[in-house]
Amino acid sequence: MILINEKSPRWGRIVACKSGRPTLSDDADRALFAESAGTCLLCNTTLFPKDPKRKRSIPIAERAHIIAHSDDGPRADATVSQKLRDAPSNIILLCPTCHTKVDKAPEGYPTEDLLKAKKNRAQAISQIGGTSSFSSRAEARRAVERLLMRNRIAFRENGPDPETGAVASREQAEAWTDCVLREIVPNNRLVEAIVDVNAELTAPGEKETAELLRQHTNALERKHQGEPVIAPAPRFPQDTVELFAGGV
């Protein structure tokens, strides 16, 4: 049963059904998938896993509300209009497992955290979308060095004690988490993207280094989003600092 069917000046037609499952306009839905890069917002697993038997992918994406569609749903907020609850800005793409977790245990996934994660993902994908194709390893090297330098400065200014891993206060811990999600994770994603886009310039082993960086970054992002990380978490691959160094 259709509950509402209205026009939004920004997104066009937005439809929500009585069950609370969001139904967006085609344009808004495409934008949502582009913003997510086809992966779950929380665990980063692909939303289009391959089915070897049928030799094609299986779409498993689930559109989830941040603020609940109904007044008694997870993260409900009666002060938010129905129109805004069903707007694309309040919808995220999750895998079935994460969708179940965020709705069954909403206290562990507050509205502010999900909105921040959505914003950070969109910013990171926007940056990656502008990744350059370089004409030489030296150019790629300079780009990687700038990103790693930004991360070193961010760690030095906001990170925990490099020897003990301790933070001085809860406020510092919160500031560090914000820095990781806003600065370090997106910068790591850009380094990964530079390797992907400039694969023809890579030396033996550099693609593997980029994959190890991807695994480290996924775990880092999950940790600072409050997700459990199976120990031991992948460490930062030190070979990252040598990406595109020297000739081939």
Structure report:
45% of the residues lie in helices and 11% in strands. The chain has helices at 26-36, 82-85, 96-104, 111-129, 137-158, 170-197, 206-224, and strands at 2-8, 12-17, 22-23, 50-51, 56-57, 62-65, 91-94. The strands form three sheets. It has a three-stranded antiparallel sheet. Helix 4 packs parallel to helix 6, helix 5 runs antiparallel to helix 6 (170-197) and helix 6 (170-197) runs antiparallel to helix 7 (206-224). The longest helix is centred in the last third of the chain and has 28 residues, at 170-197. It is globular and about 60 Å long.
User: What distance separates the N and C termini?
Assistant: 62 Å
**Which class of secondary structure composition applies to the elements?**
mainly alpha
Series of H and E elements: EEEHEEEHEHHHHH
Rg from alpha-carbon coordinates:
20 Å
Q: Which spans have pLDDT < 50 for at least 5 consecutive residues?
A: 1-19
The amount of helix comes to 40-55%
Question: Proportion of β residues?
Answer: 5-15%
Strand order of the largest sheet: 1-2-3
